[in-house]
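Hey L., structure's done. Input below.
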Amino acid sequence: MAERMTYEEIERTFSGEWVVVRDFVPDDSKMIRDGVVVAHTRDRAEAHRALYTFEGPFAIWWVGPLSGDYCGHLRFFTCDG
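Output:
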C-alpha cells in the first residue's frame, strides 16, 4: 500500500532511486512538502512507465547525487490532463 511521507522522509528512505509521488502537498515555494509514494525504483525507464498507470498530478525526481545521464533534479509538478 502507498504511504504518505514527508519530503525529508522520502529523501532518506529512497536514496539512489527515482520516486513518483501523488496526492502531494506543495509548500509556498512549490516544492513537495509531503505526498503518497506510488513508485520508487533505480530504473529511470521503469519510473517513467509508472506515470502512465494513473491520471492526474504527480511529482517525480531522482533522490541522490547527479548522474551523467540526466541534467538535474526534477521536482516540479506536471499534470497529465
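The first helix runs from residue 7 to 13. The chain has a mean pLDDT of 82.

-- N.
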